[in-house]
Specification:
The chain is mainly alpha-helical. The chain has a single domain, classed as ABC transporter involved in vitamin B12 uptake, BtuC (Orthogonal Bundle). It is built from 15 helices and four strands. The strands form two sheets. A two-stranded antiparallel sheet has the order 1-4. Strands 2-3 form a two-stranded antiparallel ribbon. The two termini are about 40 Å apart. The C terminus is likely disordered.
Length: about 350
C-alpha cells in the first residue's frame, strides 16, 4: 500500500471513529447512567433553589439530615416496590402493611413480652407481619392468577381494617425503653434511620445488579412467557418478589415506630402512592423490565427535598401537591418516549 493510500485509510478510520463516538455517547446517556444523571441534576437544582430562597435555614447540615431522615421510611418502602414493578407487578398494600406492623408490634402484650425477654422481639414482629402479608400477596397473584392491582388493593383494605380492629382505632404508645434507645440512636452523628435506609439501598442494589435473583426479576418483567420457557420458575419468583416488598414494609414499620414512638392504623396512609411516584420518577418502567435502585433513591430524595423547600418557604401544600403531580406526569411521558425508542435512538 502506498503512503497516499495509507493516509486515506487512516483518515477514513478517523472519520468513522468520530461518527461512532456520538452514537456511543447517545446510547450511554439514554441508558440508566443518563437517566440517573438527569435525576442528580434535578436534585442539585432543587438544592440551589432551596438555598437561594431559604438561605441558611435550608443549607445547613441539620436540615440535610432532616431531608434524608424524612426520606428514609418511604425510601425503604420504595426500594422493595422497585423489585415488584421491575417484575411487571404492582403493590398497593405497602402503606397499610406498614401501619399494621406498627400496631401489632406496639400491642401491650408484645411490649410486655419484649420487656421480659428482649426488645429485639419488637423488631422481629413487624418483619414477620410484612413477610406474611407479602407471602399472601405473592401466592394469590402467582398461583391464584389474580391481577396484582386487585390482589394488593384487597390487602390494602384488609390490612388497614385489621389494624383498626386490633388497636380499637386508638394510638398505642411505645414504652419499651430498649427499643426506643436503639431506634433513636445515632452512629457518628447520623441517625440510625438514615443508616438503615443506606444499608437497605446497598443490599438491594447488590441483589438487583449482581445476583441471579435480580437478573430473573428483570427478565420476568421484560417477558414473562419467555422467562418461563427459559426455565425460570416465574410463579415462585413472583412470590419471592412480593415477600421482599412485604419485608421492606415491615422494616419501614420498625423505623416508623422508632420515629413516632407510637403504633396506629393511620400510619402509612397513601405511602403506596408516594412510593410508586418515587419509583417511576427514578426511571423504573411501570410495564416492567427496567429499573434501578439508584434511580429510586434519587426519586425519593427529590420528593423529600421538594417538600422541605416548600416547608422552609411556608408555601401552600396544595401547590406542593400540584408540583409533585407535574413531576410524575413528566416522568411518565419521558418513560413512554424512551420505552418506544430503539437502541439507535429512533
Amino acid at each position: 500500500m502506498s503512503e497516499r493510500d495509507g493516509a486515506i485509510a487512516a483518515q477514513s478510520d478517523s472519520h468513522n471513529e468520530a461518527e461512532n463516538h456520538p452514537g456511543v455517547l447517545r446510547r450511554i446517556m439514554s441508558g440508566s447512567v443518563g437517566r440517573n444523571l438527569g435525576l442528580v441534576i434535578a436534585l442539585v437544582v432543587l438544592v440551589i433553589v432551596g438555598t437561594i430562597t431559604a438561605g441558611d435555614r435550608f443549607a445547613s447540615y441539620d436540615n440535610f439530615l432532616t431531608i434524608i431522615r424524612f426520606a428514609s421510611i418511604i425510601g425503604v418502602i420504595s426500594i422493595g416496590l422497585t423489585f415488584v414493578i421491575i417484575a411487571g407487578g404492582i403493590d398497593l398494600s405497602v402503606g397499610s402493611v406498614m401501619g399494621l406492623a406498627t400496631v401489632v408490634a406496639s400491642l401491650a402484650a408484645v411490649q410486655a413480652a419484649a420487656t421480659q425477654s428482649s426488645w429485639i422481639l419488637m423488631v422481629l414482629i413487624p418483619l414477620g407481619v410484612g413477610i406474611a402479608a407479602g407471602l399472601v400477596n405473592g401466592i394469590v397473584i402467582a398461583y391464584g392468577n389474580v391481577v396484582a392491582f386487585m390482589a394488593t388493593l384487597a390487602m390494602l383494605v384488609g390490612a388497614r381494617g385489621l389494624a383498626e380492629l386490633i388497636s380499637g382505632r386508638r394510638t398505642q404508645i411505645v414504652i419499651e425503653t430498649g427499643f426506643l434507645q436503639f431506634t433513636r440512636s445515632s452512629i457518628i452523628g447520623v441517625p440510625l434511620l438514615i443508616w438503615v435506609f443506606l444499608i437497605v439501598a446497598i443490599v438491594a442494589w447488590f441483589l438487583l445488579n449482581r445476583t441471579t435473583f435480580g437478573r430473573r426479576t428483570v427478565a420476568i418483567g421484560g417477558n414473562r412467557e419467555a422467562s418461563r420457557l427459559a426455565g425460570i420458575r416465574v410463579k415462585r419468583h413472583l412470590v419471592y418478589v412480593y415477600v421482599l416488598s412485604g419485608l421492606t414494609a415491615g422494616i419501614a414499620g420498625i423505623m416508623m415506630l422508632g420515629r413516632t414512638t407510637a403504633g396506629t392504623s393511620t400510619h402509612g396512609g397513601l405511602y403506596e402512592l408516594d412510593a410508586i411516584a418515587a419509583v417511576v420518577v427514578g426511571g423504573t418502567l411501570l410495564i416492567g423490565g427496567r429499573g434501578t435502585i439508584v434511580g429510586t433513591v434519587l426519586g425519593v430524595l427529590i420528593f423529600s427535598t421538594l417538600t422541605n423547600v416548600f416547608t422552609q418557604n411556608n408555601l401552600d401544600t396544595s401547590v406542593q401537591s400540584i408540583t409533585k403531580g407535574l413531576i410524575i406526569v413528566v416522568a411518565v411521558l419521558l418513560q413512554q418516549r424512551f420505552a418506544t425508542r430503539g437502541p439507535s435512538g429512533t
